[in-house]
Amino acid sequence: MQPSFLLHPLDFLGGDCVKGLEFFPAMGMTTAEKLALFRDVVEILRSRFTLVNMETHAGAVADANRSPVRDLGSLTSGARP
């Protein structure tokens, strides 16, 4: 299974930019700290995986999980597979 890395806007905004969200994890970090951490994480992921957007990732997962196609015509005639 490949990793999936879903991001949220608060992953990029620190408590120095947005007030009143201190109850969210990591909102005690500054925006600069979060962006530096994000750059480091992306470089680590890029060195080990091919990074793609969600549409490409979902398409690859769907293609990998496709089952063989069965003819269901026999089910409509009352016959069992």
Description:
This protein has 81 residues and is mostly helical. Helices cover 41% and strands 0% of the residues. It has three helices and no strands. It is elongated, with a radius of gyration of 22 Å.
Short recap of the structure:
With 81 residues, this protein is an all-alpha fold. The protein has helices spanning 31-48, 54-64, 73-76.
Structural class: mainly alpha
Which whole number gives the mean pLDDT? Answer: 84
Order of helices and strands: HHH
Main beta sheet, described?
Answer: none
Taking all Cα atoms into account, the compactness measure Rg is: 22 Å
Count of strand segments: 0
Low-confidence runs of at least 5 consecutive residues: none
Specify the helix fraction band. 40-55%
Tell me, briefly, the overall form: elongated
Strand content: under 5%
Number of helical regions: 3
Termini separation: 32 Å
Q: Could you outline the blueprint of secondary structure elements for this entry?
A:
Elements: H1 31-48, H2 54-64, H3 73-76
Comma- or semicolon-separated keywords:
single chain, 81 residues, mainly alpha, 41% helix, elongated
